[in-house]
Specification:
Length: 329
Amino acid sequence: MKVMVTGSTGFLGIHLCKELVQRGVEVNALARSMPEVHPLRHPMINIVQGDLLDQESLEKAAEGCAQVFHLAAFTKIWEKEPDLCRKINVDGTEGVLLAAKNAGVKRVVITSTAGVIGPSPSKGVEVHEETNPNPVLTTEYERTKLESENLAFTYLDKGLEVVIVNPTRVFGPGLLTQSNSVTKLVKQYGAGKWRFIPGDGRAVGNYVFIEDVVKGLMLAMEKGEPGERYILGGANLSYLEFFGILRELTGKNQRMIHIPLGPMAAFARSQTWMAKWLHIAPLITPELVQKYSKDWIMSSEKAQTQLGYSVTPIEVAFRKTWSWLQDQV
């Protein structure tokens, strides 16, 4: 069998492609530029140069494929071209779906984000796929990903079996890109370069190991119900719990500084001003301060029940990640 993978050169894409070939699956890997594809050099991986806004390359990548994993997305927190996020996340997704339909592909699994489902509606409340029917989304990334989900489901009536997965905050060994920002944070903490905790440190986020997400993608392709979305999550941790685990893991008791949300928001606004007038990418935006000040207590119960998804214990996942980081030194 042959499958198409977009976002093949990214943090998640590389892991997925390697898992596919280990299972004997041939991969058409869409890649924007050839120098980035060295981790994917394998006899069963065919590199197709192109991108989501090049329909010809999408058609070429989909040719002869039975399935499509759509991972590619615009994830930056800022871009000087305002419409680029929507072009890639919405128009690009439609291009992938159209190429899949034209190639006679039966099944498409789209990687979205748990961010489109929205935060906990109140303190301590766990979020499921249907908890927030009309979520208030704070970032353009979330808004365009939700739009792309709604668009994708319209292709059910066009003969495509579309399944969507919604990973939470992914981490683990691999490329230290923005998509792997949690691992970058682990590295900075271990090096004594990160000493900050937002607010009182009690806001909760969900952290998922990269290996679990890859397995979740495979299960969604195998067992996912068309027209459904599945949260692929891991452990719900407050910032205090998160850094407590890092302290035990690394053996480094870094003195942490709590940054009140007000000053954080003011700094973010100054960063946005610099981005607007000086075209310097901001370190953080007011939208992100708002987002990460809330609880994101996510449940993977649906994926566990319907797909057979399982979660690696968080201490094991962080230990593997820290061990890998140590080997990179």
